[in-house]
């Protein structure tokens, strides 16, 4: 069992960062990189064994749109990996996974939740290629292809993986229910793109409601399974509160069920914190307390 980290942006906001920006957490690579390193350290201290870098939204087109040169953008993408590596080294152990976020994150129009794109497979391959090779040549241990909402985008990433035969990766889809990724493709079909690929260490789901996770685990065959859902919260306007697995103890209990169902990697995504990861560690080691 491998414990991943939790929501990087969520914890950065807890540490005082203002992420109201199209670059989201990647804007801190420009403004305050030390707080990113601290967030990684906090997750390692909570029991995470993997730090996922702040490169989810750190693409060359996004930084160029902000006014930087392509060379400056490349330096910032590499910085995202270096910050996670620094935290790992300070902690004394761990793995650095370079986040490869979806094209929809760059669009900043909600397409990462639908997979409704204006590029075909060739276009998506070309869009991802520069960042892909920068991260593949970095000090990262592996690539985290995450929050993938589109079957076409998954095919594009498969092509890029073949361009870097020495790099390992995981592939994690965002799903709209217990059987389909966000563009409507059955998860079983999307996962099948990578089931026989020796470079892929795991296939899974993230940024997905916890209530769908057990069903989704059963859709993945041929590789170890990973799950790092969001908290599943929805706004209850009548009672003015969030409903879901926001409570870290409940999230830890649910994580124990996901591992019992066969998931070999478990962590959290949006609105999960180091305390959620601490509770996952506690429940998986059987202590019941952090």
TrEMBL record:
Q: Name one GO biological process term.
A: methylation
Q: Which domain of life is it from?
A: Bacteria
Which cofactors are named for this entry?
A: Zn(2+)
Q: Which InterPro entries match?
A: BHMT-like (IPR017226), HCY_dom (IPR003726), HCY_dom_sf (IPR036589), Hcy_S-methyltransferase (IPR051486)
Which top-level enzyme class is recorded in the Swiss-Prot or TrEMBL entry? transferase
Alphabetical keyword list: Metal-binding, Methyltransferase, Transferase, Zinc
UniProt GO MF annotations: methyltransferase activity
Residue numbers binding Zn(2+): 207, 269-270
What Enzyme Commission number(s) appear in the record? 2.1.1.10
Give the PANTHER family listed for this entry.
Answer: HOMOCYSTEINE S-METHYLTRANSFERASE-LIKE ISOFORM 1 (PTHR46015:SF1), ZGC:172121 (PTHR46015)
Name of protein? Homocysteine S-methyltransferase
Please state the gene responsible for encoding this protein. Answer: mmuM
